[in-house]
Amino acid sequence: MPNTLVECVPNFSEGRDKAKVDAIIEAMKIPGVHLLDREMDADHNRSVITLVGEREAIQEAAIRGVGKAAELIDLTQHQGAHPRMGAADVVPFIPIEGVTIEDCVAMAKHVGAEIAKRFSIPVYLYEAAAASPERQNLENIRRGQFEGIRDEIATNPARKPDFGEPLVHPTAGATVVGARKFLVAYNIFLNTADVDIAKKIAKAVRFSTGGLRFVKGAGFLVRGQAQVSMNLTDFEQTPIHRVFEFVKREAARYGVVPTSSEIVGLIPKLALEQAAEWFLQVENFDSSLILENRLASVMTGKTAVGGLRAGVEPFIEQLAAPTATPGGGSAAAASGAMAAGLAHMVAAMSRGKKAYLQFESQLSEAIAQLGQLREELKQAIDADAESYNFVMKAYKAARESADGDRIINAALQTATTVPLGVAERVAAIAKMVDRLKPITNPNMASDLITAAALANAALTGALANVDINLGSMKAETTDEQEFLSRTQELAAALRTQAD
């Protein structure tokens, strides 16, 4: 079927052996299928792989992934915090474009039948593909995990699979295949190691025991912290910010607080927009205020599915256009934002890994600071262009005013403040990159080197914009002279740091 796009998020019961996960992913690489994300969690001993592709191709990719997992994963030797019943534990299909949930149900049934036929792995259908109401919920199917199903599948009619013989694969167990809407896997860490508290909070928040609609939850001990692990099956009706506030309120009953949260896999931008609107309480908020959304609105028919280039190309083409804005100041801000993004990625991929547990608090602090700096620099991309336009308007207005120099100087001060702020932020990023080098994975050293280079380029460009604006000022009043002197001192200090 042409022009179809389906997401598939298979969960595999392996989160510690990278070579095995790499082999599974390699088995799923076929034309028409693209890898969007991979998550490995050693404590859960589980990997979540996010694929997107054409309808026919992604079905075959999923089948091959299940087969490779059956070769490599032995559930009789498997231990981890997350419940599991199969080497390939769950394989959901999610409609993205050109397909309906009914189409994904048909896909799930085809894939389930093929898995049973090719690999002798029994398959259960769940969510929208379930043949009976009690099998819509994954927890009902997986109850007792691999060992419980192995003991009952041949004798308990309720355990009879939808495809295959009533006999689990001796090492690969059974697999659940289904169709569902987009799911957000969201975990909240608490400032306690008491996993019983996490379990009590999970019981309160999940819908099956009287909590929030469209929320599933369980409590685990992960990296020495109690974790409330949740799946949000309809984030539009039960948004992520409501879930966080609920958990925070429940945690207070036990004298604990959330320390951080994590997304496993991908999250729709809309979910984060909802959270931003709620927590920031921005009066005039709408999605068009977000830079990436505004850029997307001017893209000429391209989408993110077209690759990374589709997101950055419009900005590059605007830089190349024979217009004054965006110019060097915007480019400096963009370079700084990329530096912060790279450093953030390195810190995030090192945090939680066994080799870097002693640096957990330092990495968490860096991640929070880099995230804030990245957002501020992204805003400066537009702010620099706007400040230039403001200066041009000031020069025009000055021709018709007896107070022309004051008007121009005021505009130049504003135009100077933006790149000066960029310079201060990228200088901070450069320092953080240096601090990250000894406490992060050395295999990602090239990413930090690139981040440092981008930060230094941004600092050089931003200070050049500061200099040219100061050079255009005719500082006559005391306030203007003080601004000029103070800014020159700050710029000199930042330039010394870069040297």
UniProtKB/TrEMBL annotation:
Its EC number is 2.1.2.5, 4.3.1.4. PANTHER family: FORMIMINOTRANSFERASE-CYCLODEAMINASE. The gene is ftcD. It is found in: Cytoplasm, Cytoskeleton, Microtubule organizing center, Centrosome, Centriole; Golgi apparatus. GO terms for biological process: L-histidine metabolic process. One of its GO terms (molecular function) is formimidoyltetrahydrofolate cyclodeaminase activity. GO terms for cellular component: centriole. It comes from Occallatibacter riparius. Residues 4-181 form the Formiminotransferase N-terminal subdomain domain. Keywords: Coiled coil, Cytoplasm, Cytoskeleton, Folate-binding, Golgi apparatus, Histidine metabolism, Lyase, Multifunctional enzyme, Transferase. This is Formimidoyltransferase-cyclodeaminase. The keyword Transit peptide does not apply. Folate-dependent enzyme, that displays both transferase and deaminase activity. Serves to channel one-carbon units from formiminoglutamate to the folate pool. Pfam families: FTCD, FTCD_C, FTCD_N. InterPro entries: Cyclodeamin/CycHdrlase, Formiminotransferase_C, Formiminotransferase_C_sf, Formiminotransferase_cat, Formiminotransferase_N, Formiminotransferase_N_sf, FormiminoTrfase_cat_dom_sf, Formintransfe-cycloase-like_sf. Homooctamer, including four polyglutamate binding sites. The subunits are arranged as a tetramer of dimers, and form a planar ring-shaped structure. Residues 182-294 form the Formiminotransferase C-terminal subdomain domain. Residues 356-383 form a coiled coil. In the N-terminal section; belongs to the formiminotransferase family. In the C-terminal section; belongs to the cyclodeaminase/cyclohydrolase family. SUPFAM superfamilies: Formiminotransferase domain of formiminotransferase-cyclodeaminase, Methenyltetrahydrofolate cyclohydrolase-like. Pathway: Amino-acid degradation; L-histidine degradation into L-glutamate; L-glutamate from N-formimidoyl-L-glutamate (transferase route): step 1/1.
